[in-house]
Design brief:
CATH superfamily of the largest domain in chain A: DD-peptidase/beta-lactamase superfamily
Strand content of chain B: 35-45%
Structural class of chain B: alpha+beta
Largest sheet of chain B: 20 strands, mixed
Distance between the termini of chain A: 86 Å
Oligomer: heterodimer
CATH topology of the largest domain in chain A: Beta-lactamase
Shape of chain B: elongated
Number of helices of chain A: 24
Number of domains of chain B: 2
Number of helices of chain B: 13
Helix content of chain B: 10-25%
Number of domains of chain A: 3
CATH architecture of the largest domain in chain A: 3-Layer(aba) Sandwich
Radius of gyration of chain A: 30 Å
Distance between the termini of chain B: 50 Å
Largest interface: A-B, 50 and 62 residues
Number of strands of chain A: 20
Largest sheet of chain A: 6 strands, antiparallel
Number of strands of chain B: 20
Strand content of chain A: 5-15%
Shape of chain A: globular
């Protein structure tokens, strides 16, 4: 039938539906999605297999958007097979194909059940309208398919379809399908394997050869037959492909620490946004994160969080939801179970490997509870679980939401920490992130707090003081912390307060930083100008260019940062003033973006003075309690945001920067006294103590980072400082620039424009 | 149609009608001045019309650029001139010149309507708050029919996910539209009867194709809710379908569509199991086209050209077409009648029963229970060639019989080897029957003594194919 006549009829029908059913008089709501951003301007997405440096752990890492490739990136046989099996008349029909629908109906009646949707309709279904089996959805799908056909080139539609199609094994998008099923790139697939992947479009779930080998092979052979019938492949090749066995690769293990995978995923997303996307084929990339450092950081963080606040329930479902369940949860209405599942899911994730449970009633005998167990799939089911591992201080009650974890093969109830935290370890010489722990339990919460934006509090002051020294302020210049009032907007005024409310009076700059005086910091920022501090913090990578708020409050850490960016910024101090963007991936030529820039942020003498001040923080300042008797000579800075919402500590030794954040996800204040020195500094102390015990770090830091005996810097005294040692040059650029965070607090992309003038050529002392 | 009192309907259309009703009321008032004429503000509303507007919750203000702006939350109507007129049943009518109606700033737009002139029978119909008040009888809808007439109407679909440039072509224009709405209490709610009468309609679609209709009458009756009964009737006279670029595709003297369904039928629209819902539904539908006229060429692929492709362009197809469907108590009756000169004459009918929820599909057929348990009660197919064979021969050099035989061979080759004998038993008589119609009228009837289900059909085919004709009461006659 003439495609023109068919197009006319189909588009007139769609126009009638559009003007009468979806227009001012309409009853059908078209989905509020921007197909422009999903079809021609869709983000490229990425997918990679990430392995640890020792090659023992690996996991697939991908973007939320599927890996996308132009149709011509696939073998021609694959495209031919897709068209032959799914939509032979594409793109000659107007987006919908009544003939194909009729043919599908007849074939279904004859026992060959198949759909009659065009590739355009399937694309619209995947991207916009979903698959609810209602006529209203089908009408909306048809209208959008006709419009999409008129709006977009067939190439774009086919690309969007292939990118949005489900191929099984956790894979959306054809680009990653070859790696998922055959562990090889598309270019190495045989005709039979290509036909198998095209056949999966009919339903990857029931065509999985691991579960239904006969069905999978029959489908592959059907696709090959369609190729032969359409004359799109050599008959001899078709015959050989039919005769070949269907052998898929076994699924690859997913053993890599989830926090490593999430950190790498965030970095790849940033690279994909900044560059031209990742390679079409799924590359294997090596993470910089070391499993040993990761384990040390993870254990230290968990131990401190458990010690700071006794674990308990993640939350509690409302009593009225429990009441609806009745006495027999096995017979509870599905709607009630669904409501309970939703309530629990808001506070605690669940998966088959890490379920959650809602307590119903304690059993009469033994420490066990009847619970509703939720594995993240389907509705929760009744179960009985032991409570022997719950802490003694926690008194469980019906409705409590707890984690379920296995110990020695036996699943039991586990309490959830009341506080959250994150820890980052990186090598500032290369920018390599050695550990990135995004929370207490990766199974319970996917939110990566190492990349979350939070207020740094006083931990930002190091860059204020460095900016002051770089601008010519002597290390022992006098400053007072007597109260001062600054004019605010609308006639109001602002009066900064010291933590604890006291005042020290006049003191040298280094004392002001060691004591973390807020008033002195604001006076200093006012003296040198907040712009100078912002330029320094941005040059160090703590903020992206222009990312720090130009306001005196920012001198006290009101402008949010990520832990990764802040830690990397501190790393630039211990290299003698050379900033290198952090990365969780080893250099790889397939990664887009320019080589990572190494930038000098200040002269080594000014940096050395700040390092001496930060050493004073640990020896006689706000972090002294956490590091008394510590085997490693650490310098660092505490930070506590307003009302104890965030507690920070970043510790540095030559060749290493370790940052820790503690707080709550919902920004509620922690208990009084939960300062950076109390909550976060002990985690850094434990990480470095454990690393020292394992021989990973010496008393003076990493071997070779500074000449022996150069570290630590002597404590400052009035008129007494030591000259800076000879900081070794940094190794060659390790690879492309990378992102420290996805948000405005990200520390990547430090441009020369962000370099403070004083830092580039300030007075040397 | 203005002033015509609508017939009391017996059904409802559900949410669609609710939107249609409210939109019609709202849009009937809206207007933005479209003209390029000097915008000398003319406000002849008069105190009675102003009072009526205020009572209905609308503000009337002079526009800075001239003209009048009527507004209420979420809606805005602009008109270059406005005049109060005596309305229906002693109310106040409203006449607006050069109007544009749409959503006010910040409100989610669902479309745009412009008209050169609008006459509203009664300003009170604009009282949307009263219409939406469930405490009032029938939601406060006006007891009398409300009518609005538009001249030189231009209706555009809402902008949606696609680029704004695409929303433009999907447009309906009409020289005149009269909308009459009757509302009356029904089961604690309200039932509506909407009549839309349009003249000189043009429906433009994406890609440039177009439908021109001399007169279009649409009637909707129903109540809000997915499970409310509904009746829909549409009549289009002097229908003219055009290809992109304006070339004619087809014409019809009259096209009619009619549908009536109960709550189960309308609920099937949003049901996740529409077949199951239809098994419980009562519905009746009919579509007919009289005076169809088209040419074969636009319907045939241009390439590859047949040996006598020139004949396509002068191969006219003309006649009448009718399709009827009725479903009640799970019993389905379908009838198709077509008499198209230049193509074929077809007369077909089928009676069947949809299955219940307990019906199981045969192995390998993932059919919903309503289809899996479907049973054939009777069927009839008669057809005679009226030019189809000649057309096929002209294009391809082979007649219809040869094409059918080739298609059968290809289908058998595609089928799995084990299924070929079974498929051959199905295709061979069908091909012979269809080919036989070229020689003259042929007819086949199926009249089984008892309804035959799909599993029973398969069993008979597999186990006793020789008894097929007897089991189905198959009879064929030239």
């Amino acid at each position: 039938m003439s495609s023109l006549a068919l197009t006319t009829l189909a588009t007139l029908a769609a126009a009638f539906v559009a003007t009468t059913a979806t227009g001012p008089l309409g009853a059908i709501d078209l989905p509020a999605v921007d197909l422009d951003r999903l079809v021609p301007r869709a983000p490229p997405g990425f997918e990679a297999r990430v392995v640890t440096p020792d090659g023992r752990e690996e996991r697939r890492v991908r973007s939320r958007e599927p890996l996308r490739a132009p149709p011509e990136a696939f073998p021609p046989a694959f495209l031919a097979a897709v068209l032959a099996a799914e939509d032979q008349r594409f793109p000659d029909h107007p987006g919908i194909d009544p003939l194909a629908a009729l043919s599908a109906l007849l074939d279904t009646a004859a026992g060959d059940m198949r759909g009659g949707s065009t590739i355009t309709q399937q694309m619209v279904k995947n991207l916009a309208v979903g698959s609810a089996p209602t006529l209203g959805r089908k009408l909306a799908e048809a209208v959008l398919a006709v419009r999409a056909h008129a709006a977009y080139a067939p190439r774009d539609i086919l690309a969007a379809y292939l990118a949005s199609a489900w191929f099984g094994r956790g894979t959306t998008g054809a680009a990653a399908a070859a790696a998922a099923w055959f562990d090889r790139p598309w270019s190495e697939l045989t005709l039979a394997e290509t036909a198998f992947l095209a056949g999966l479009l009919k339903g990857a779930g029931h065509l999985d050869p691991d579960r239904a080998p006969d069905l999978a092979r029959a489908r592959r052979d059907y696709v090959l037959d369609r190729l032969a019938a359409d004359g799109r492949a050599d008959p001899a090749a078709i015959a050989a492909a039919r005769a070949s066995p269907l052998a898929v690769a076994p699924p690859r293990p997913e053993t890599l620490d989830p926090w490593i995978a999430r950190t790498v995923a965030a970095e790849l997303a940033e690279r994909a946004r900044a560059g031209d996307g990742l390679p079409f084929e799924v590359p294997t990339l090596v993470a910089t994160i070391d499993p040993v450092w990761q384990a040390i950081a993870s254990e230290a963080l968990a131990a401190r969080l458990n010690a700071l606040a006794p674990p308990g329930p993640a939350g509690r479902v409302p009593p009225e939801l429990l009441a609806v369940l009745g006495s027999d949860p096995a017979r509870a209405p599905p709607a009630a179970l669904e409501a309970l599942r939703e309530a629990a899911a808001r506070v605690l994730l669940a998966s088959p490997a890490a379920p959650r449970a809602v307590l119903l009633r304690r059993l009469a005998q033994g420490a066990a509870w009847e619970v509703l167990l939720d594995r993240g799939l389907g509705l929760p089911v009744p179960a009985t679980l032991p409570a022997t591992d719950l802490p003694a201080a926690y008194w469980p009650l019906p409705g409590d939401i707890l984690a379920v974890r296995a110990t020695g093969g036996v699943a039991g109830l586990r309490a959830v920490p009341a506080l959250q935290g994150a820890a980052v370890v990186l090598d500032p010489r290369t920018g390599a992130i050695l550990a990135a722990v995004g929370g207490h339990d990766a199974q319970a919460s996917a939110f990566n707090r190492a990349l979350a934006l939070r207020q740094p509090g006083s931990s930002i002051k190091a860059f204020l003081y460095l900016a002051a020294l770089a601008a010519g302020e002597p290390f022992d210049a006098a400053i007072t912390d007597q109260p001062i009032r600054f004019p605010g907007a609308g006639g109001a005024s602002w009066q900064p307060q010291n933590y604890g409310g006291g005042h020290y009076g006049r003191m040298p700059l280094y004392s002001a930083l060691e004591r973390s005086s807020n008033i002195a910091a604001v006076r200093l920022a006012d003296r040198i100008g907040i712009e100078a501090m912002a330029a320094m913090a941005e040059a160090a990578g703590v903020y992206p260019a222009g990312g720090m708020t130009r306001n005196l409050v920012a001198a006290l850490g009101a402008s949010e940062v990520t832990l990764v960016a802040l830690t990397a910024g501190y790393g630039a101090l211990v290299t003698g003033g050379l900033a290198r963007p952090p990365s969780a991936l080893r250099p790889d030529p397939r990664l887009p973006g320019p080589p990572a820039p190494v930038r000098r942020i200040a002269d080594p003498e000014a940096v050395w003075d700040v390092l001496a001040m930060l050493r004073g923080v640990v020896v006689r300042g706000t972090a002294a309690g956490a590091f008394a008797g510590h085997p490693v000579a650490v310098a660092g800075k505490t930070g506590t945001s307003q009302d104890h919402r965030d507690a920070w500590f970043v510790g540095i030794v030559p060749g290493l920067a370790v940052g820790v954040w503690v707080g709550r996800d919902d920004y509620r204040p922690m208990a009084a006294g939960m300062t950076g020195g109390v909550a976060a500094a002990p985690v850094v102390a434990r990480i470095l103590a454990e690393a020292h015990a394992r021989g990973l770090v010496g008393p003076e830091g990493m071997a070779g980072a500074l000449p022996p005996g150069a570290w630590p810097p002597p404590l400052l005294a009035p008129g007494r400082r030591s000259p800076a040692p000879a900081f070794p040059p940094l190794p060659a650029a390790p690879g492309p620039a990378l992102a420290a965070a996805g948000g405005p607090g990200g520390g990547n992309g430090i441009g020369l424009a962000g370099l403070p003038a004083a830092a580039a050529g300030g007075p040397l002392r | 149609m203005k002033g015509r009192r609508p017939r009391a309907g017996a059904g409802g259309r559900g949410r669609g009608l609710a939107l249609a009703a409210s939109s019609a009321l709202a849009l009937a008032l809206a207007a933005t001045p479209a003209p390029t004429a000097a915008a000398a503000a003319t406000d002849d509303l008069g105190p009675a019309a102003r009072a009526a507007l205020a009572a209905a919750g609308w503000t009337a203000a002079e526009a800075a650029a001239g003209g009048l702006v009527l507004a209420r939350a979420g809606l805005e109507i602009r008109a270059l001139r406005a005049r109060g007129r005596p309305g229906a049943a002693g109310g106040v009518g409203l006449r607006l010149e050069h109007v544009e109606a749409g959503a006010a700033a910040g409100a989610p737009a669902r479309g745009r309507l412009t008209a050169r002139r609008l006459y509203l029978g009664d300003v009170a119909a604009l009282d949307l708050a009263r219409a939406a008040d469930p405490a009032r009888p029938c939601g406060g809808a006006p007891p009398q029919p409300v009518s609005a007439s538009f001249w030189d109407l231009d209706l555009e679909a809402d902008s949606d996910a696609l680029p704004a440039a695409l929303a433009g072509p999907e447009r309906l224009t009409a020289a005149r539209l009269t909308v009459t709405l009757q509302a009356e209490p029904w089961r604690g709610g309200c039932r509506y009867d909407l009549l839309a009468d349009l003249e000189e309609v043009r429906l433009a679609a994406v890609g440039g194709s177009e439908a021109r209709i001399g007169r279009l009458v649409l009637r909707l009756s129903g109540a809000p809710g997915a499970l409310a009964p509904v009746t829909v009737a549409l009549t289009a006279d002097e229908l003219d379908l055009r290809l992109p670029g304006g070339a004619p595709l087809a014409r019809a003297g009259r096209l009619t569509l009619a549908f009536a369904g109960d709550g189960a039928a309308t609920g099937a629209l949003a049901a996740t199991d529409p077949w199951g819902a239809l098994g419980r539904a009562r519905l009746r539908g009919e579509a007919a086209a009289a005076g169809l006229a088209t040419a074969a060429a636009p319907w045939l692929d241009a390439a590859p050209p047949g040996p006598a492709a020139g004949a396509d362009a002068i191969h006219p197809v003309a006649g009448d077409l009718r399709l009827a469907l009725e479903l009640a108590g799970g019993r389905l009756a379908v009838a198709v009648a077509a008499d198209l000169g230049g193509l074929a004459r077809v007369d077909a009918a089928l009676e069947a029963t949809l299955g219940g929820p307990g019906a199981a599909a045969p192995a390998g057929l993932a059919l919903p229970p309503a289809l899996a348990g479907a049973a054939l009660r009777a069927a009839r197919l008669a057809w005679a060639d009226r030019g189809l064979d000649g057309l096929v021969t002209a294009r391809s050099g082979r007649g219809l019989a040869a094409h059918l035989a080739a298609a059968e061979t290809a289908a058998l080759a595609r089928a799995p080897a084990a299924a070929r004998p079974l498929l051959a038993r199905l295709t061979a008589p069908a091909v012979a029957f269809l080919a036989g119609g070229v020689a003259g009228p042929v007819e086949a009837r199926l009249a089984p003594a008892r309804p035959v289900t799909l599993p029973a059909l398969l069993r008979t085919l597999l186990l006793a194919p020789g008894g097929l004709a007897r089991r189905f009461g198959l009879a064929a006659a030239p």
